[in-house]
């Protein structure tokens, strides 16, 4: 194995170099496996298209075509036409523009939530696995507690608490009428605070089993500092499980936001979220059902695509657990 | 078994106290009290109101009173309509339980059936159909499915009422099922996702079990296929399914918030949503703690069921 002409003082660097080339190889292999999974690729492409179009609509009026919040009482409850691709709602607002606005909001919620979930989850899972018995007991009790708290109720309560206060970013003037970005931030924080438990448990479990692996013992024996062992050897090995969990977490967050929006706790009224679109579509279901169709289809598409992408990623990153 | 049950029930106490505490802290962290309105009340009236609801005590005293009342299942008085919250919960619970039972039966019976059917036709047409339903169903939460079902079956086909605004509560335990027409759509909408979930797990664990030696033995000794599948295979395949029943219960409860609001069903879920919208803090706290207790209790029941399903598990 180790060549004899390697200077004895730095065997660790040499081995590490080997490990790194190997590691890149693993990711490339996983990427290849993912590309072979047609369903996952299709889901990824659809998500990319949806994301691009709704982001473009946020910047360019050409894509958005109408202001999603401005009513036009000359054109209420229209069916799809060349003027209004998806029709208009009860107040004559263009449904294409509103759908894209709601979709972008949902995607921001889904992605933003996972950023916070990963930060909290990985930190707590790591601390529980590595920082001794006492911290493990305390952190896992906390995790159990957060898990036992009824999800949606906790989200609603947290949201009320955070929105009711006059925070610098959130309270734009009257705290009773929070701004658009304030609601986005608060919703992301509220959903994150109930969803980090899965990642924390996952990371803790992975870390506990990786800690006992030979390569970690080898790195330690060669004099790598504890932080280096965690950063270079342990964290990258939990990464694949964490990525899969984050991908499955996105549709759950989107669903939670849609639920909030539906029961009237979404974005402030003139704006649209997918949940509030479903809610108002349901109000006029008998006179104008087309208004309900689009947001429903969009939520279903987003959830299906993220689920397929998550399945594909899981199979690609961990071929042993292939179903 | 008894010792284990007692230990688990005792372990529930600190958990519920913690949840009650968090709820209490959260509710008191909300700026502005329940008596805030556009027109400020005269100070004397405000003082009297606060005294009436015990809000003039220092916070620690309020907290201890709150816990003391909770221990006696007394959730206090709803500020919005001046009624005892325990009464409100008791009154609304019936409809929610009814919907919960219907949904649970729908999800488990159909889910198990679909899973077993899929596993027996592995890689056949029936299997692909089953897996397709399970995969699509897993991405169809109630908020998506309910509008679709309503458009198709209520608006277009007219089989059911569009919104069960006239939802009548009939006592199923006395054999009165006359309100079934209003129950079908909410049940399917709420139960489809857990059904798909159960079907997926049942299929995977059935495939595992059907390869075991004791199934071959049962076949070899000439048992009818039905007895092999049901008595030998399915019973053992149930164990992994039991593990997800806890989360499914929790999902049914949160799902009922949506479904009851959507279909205008006068249950506890809709009452909770209403109480959040009008900021009835007492009712919000009461319902949250109540739901937490129900979920903790259901998890205990599921854990005890393991013992029956798998005699190897000893407590």
Automatic annotation (TrEMBL), chain A:
Transmembrane residues, as ranges? 39-57, 109-131, 138-162, 182-203, 241-267, 292-313
The name under which this protein is listed is ABC transporter permease
Q: Where is it predominantly found?
A: membrane
Family, according to the entry, reads as follows: Belongs to the binding-protein-dependent transport system permease family. OppBC subfamily.
* Membrane topology listed for this record: Multi-pass membrane protein
Q: What is the lineage of its organism?
A: Bacteria, Bacillati, Chloroflexota, Tepidiformia, Tepidiformales
Localization recorded for this chain is: Cell membrane
Q: Residue ranges of the ABC transmembrane type-1 domain?
A: 103-310
Transmembrane as a keyword of this entry, yes or no, is: yes
Q: Keywords in alphabetical order, please.
A: Cell membrane, Membrane, Peptide transport, Protein transport, Transmembrane, Transmembrane helix, Transport
Q: Which domain of life is it from?
A: Bacteria
Automatic annotation (TrEMBL), chain B:
The alphabetical list of record keywords is:
Cell membrane, Membrane, Transmembrane, Transmembrane helix, Transport
Q: Which organism is it from?
A: Tepidiforma flava
Q: What is its main location?
A: membrane
From the record, give the transmembrane residue ranges: 9-30, 97-117, 129-160, 180-201, 241-263, 283-309
Topology of the protein relative to the lipid bilayer: Multi-pass membrane protein
Give the matching InterPro entries.
BPD_transp_1_N, MetI-like, MetI-like_sf
Give its localization.
Cell membrane
Q: Name one Pfam family in it.
A: BPD_transp_1
Q: In this protein, which residues make up the domain named ABC transmembrane type-1? A: 93-306
Q: Which Gene3D superfamilies match?
A: MetI-like
Q: Which residues form a coiled coil?
A: none
Task: Give the family, as the similarity comment puts it.
Answer: Belongs to the binding-protein-dependent transport system permease family.
* Name of protein: ABC transporter permease
């Amino acid at each position: 194995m180790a060549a004899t002409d390697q200077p004895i003082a730095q065997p660790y660097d040499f081995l590490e170099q080997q490990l790194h080339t190997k590691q890149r190889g693993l990711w490339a292999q996983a990427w290849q496996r993912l590309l072979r999974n047609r369903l996952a690729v299709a889901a990824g492409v659809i998500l990319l298209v949806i994301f691009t179009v709704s982001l473009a609509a946020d910047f360019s009026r050409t894509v958005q075509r109408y202001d999603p919040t401005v009513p036009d009482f000359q054109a209420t409850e229209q069916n799809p036409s060349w003027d209004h691709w998806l029709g208009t709602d009860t107040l004559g607002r263009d449904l294409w523009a509103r759908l894209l606005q709601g979709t972008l909001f949902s995607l921001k919620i889904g992605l933003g939530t996972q950023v916070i979930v990963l930060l909290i989850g990985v930190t707590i899972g790591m601390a529980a696995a590595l920082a001794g018995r006492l911290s493990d007991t305390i952190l896992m009790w906390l995790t159990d507690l957060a898990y036992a708290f009824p999800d949606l109720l906790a989200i609603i309560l947290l949201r009320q608490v955070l929105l009711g206060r006059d925070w610098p970013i959130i309270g734009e003037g009257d705290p009773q009428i929070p701004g658009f970005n304030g609601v986005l931030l608060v919703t992301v924080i509220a959903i994150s605070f109930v969803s980090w438990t899965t990642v924390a448990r996952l990371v803790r479990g992975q870390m506990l089993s990786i800690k006992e692996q030979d390569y970690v013992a080898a790195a330690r024996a060669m004099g790598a500092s504890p932080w280096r062992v965690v950063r270079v050897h342990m964290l990258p090995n939990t990464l694949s499980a964490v990525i899969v969990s984050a991908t499955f977490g996105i549709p759950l967050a989107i669903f939670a936001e849609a639920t909030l929006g539906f029961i009237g706790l979404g974005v402030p009224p003139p704006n649209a979220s997918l949940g509030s679109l479903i809610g108002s579509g349901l109000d006029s279901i008998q006179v104008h059902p087309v208004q309900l169709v689009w947001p429903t289809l969009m939520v279903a598409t987003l959830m299906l695509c993220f689920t397929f992408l998550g399945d594909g990623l899981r199979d690609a990153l961990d071929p042993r657990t292939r179903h | 078994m008894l010792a284990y049950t007692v230990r688990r029930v005792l372990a529930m106490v600190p958990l519920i106290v913690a949840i009650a505490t968090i709820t209490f802290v959260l509710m008191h962290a909300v700026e502005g009290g329940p008596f805030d309105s556009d027109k400020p009340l005269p100070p004397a009236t405000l003082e009297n109101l606060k005294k009436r609801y015990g809000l003039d005590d220092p916070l620690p005293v309020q907290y201890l009173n709150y816990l003391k009342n909770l221990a006696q299942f007394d959730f206090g008085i709803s500020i919005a309509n001046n009624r005892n919250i325990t009464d409100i919960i008791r009154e609304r619970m019936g409809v929610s339980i009814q919907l919960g039972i219907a949904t649970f039966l729908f999800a488990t019976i159909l889910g198990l059936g679909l899973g077993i059917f899929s596993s027996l036709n592995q890689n056949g047409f029936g299997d692909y159909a089953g897996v397709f339903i399970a995969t699509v169903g897993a991405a169809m939460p109630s908020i998506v499915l309910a509008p679709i079902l309503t458009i198709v079956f209520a608006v277009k086909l007219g089989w059911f009422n569009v919104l069960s605004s006239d939802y009548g509560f009939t006592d199923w335990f006395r054999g009165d099922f006359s309100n079934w027409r209003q129950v079908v759509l909410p049940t399917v909408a709420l139960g489809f996702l857990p059904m798909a979930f159960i079907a997926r797990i049942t299929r995977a664990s059935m495939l595992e079990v059907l390869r075991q030696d004791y199934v071959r033995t049962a076949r070899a000794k000439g048992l009818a296929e039905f007895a092999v599948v049901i008595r030998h295979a399915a019973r053992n395949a149930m164990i992994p399914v039991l593990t997800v029943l806890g989360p499914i219960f929790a999902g049914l409860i949160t799902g009922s918030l949506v479904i009851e609001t959507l279909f205008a069903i006068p249950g506890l879920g809709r009452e909770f949503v209403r109480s959040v919208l009008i900021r009835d803090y007492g009712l919000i706290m009461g319902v949250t703690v109540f739901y937490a207790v129900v979920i903790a209790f259901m998890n205990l029941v599921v854990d005890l069921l393991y013992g029956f399903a798998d005699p190897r598990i000893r407590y």
